[in-house]
């Protein structure tokens, strides 16, 4: 597919990608990946040459895998490097839905939970997406209330979709001796249906290698079964690692997701 970039108009530009109109099909748009990387609600920002191509590959591989699994997503295809065709949103849901298997990051601090605690079943959290407000979390009890009392089933649907999506990806990464620690996903409305949207790349999840063969994940805390120092995710950037190391870890993710087509 040939894309005449000069003829396209930017609909919206985010921290790591741009969305362009599709003059040949008003029901779809183009998503174009950028080399930018950010952290701390956008406060920390760098450009890593080649990151866009890596993220595009990971996003393509994961969304094609999820589509084969029957997950309802906005993703259609990736006709050109760094470019994907996605369904045009009727409305974006301004929430981030986080699913966690192993405690690390912010939940250890505010939740006073020991790092490495294994969540079984999975836990889910919804955050209002706003950098200035630092993505505050919605109270889980109130979400249950609006589902039960106000019929706001969209919240329950997003939690359910996040749950199933996590399980699909957790199993896929386990084939390569990697544990999916947590994942952050977004949703929108297309044709009156809640659909998985946005990108899924190394900045969307935490991924830790197994510390040894046949880890015992039946324990309350699995930190010794994993190797957080070998993490393959954006935490390498958050923690201040060299940008070359950050890029190399993202490349490892891409090498792994390229094999998802065989799963």
Which features characterize this protein?
5-stranded antiparallel β-sheet; globular; 2 domains; D-amino Acid Aminotransferase, Chain A, domain 1; Phosphorylase Kinase, domain 1; single chain; alpha+beta; 263 residues
Sequence-ordered SSE layout with sheet pairings:
Elements: E1 10-13, E2 17-21, E3 28-33, E4 36-39, E5 44-47, H1 51-68, E6 75-80, E7 83-87, E8 91-102, H2 106-110, E9 118-128, H3 140-150, H4 153-174, E10 178-190, E11 193-197, E12 205-209, H5 235-238, H6 243-257
Antiparallel strand pairs: 1-2, 2-3, 3-7, 4-5, 6-7, 8-9, 8-10, 10-11, 10-12
Question: How would you explain this protein's 3D organization?
Answer:
The structure is a single chain. The two termini are 27 Å apart. The longest helix is centred in the middle third of the chain and has 22 residues, at 153-174. The protein is built from six helices and twelve strands. Strands 1-2-3-7-6 form a five-stranded antiparallel sheet, covered by helices on one side. The protein folds into two domains: 5-87, Phosphorylase Kinase, domain 1 (2-Layer Sandwich); 92-244, ATP-grasp fold, B domain (D-amino Acid Aminotransferase, Chain A, domain 1, 2-Layer Sandwich), CATH 3.30.470. It is of the alpha+beta class. α1 (51-68) runs parallel beside α6 and α3 crosses α4. β1 (10-13) and β2 form a beta hairpin.
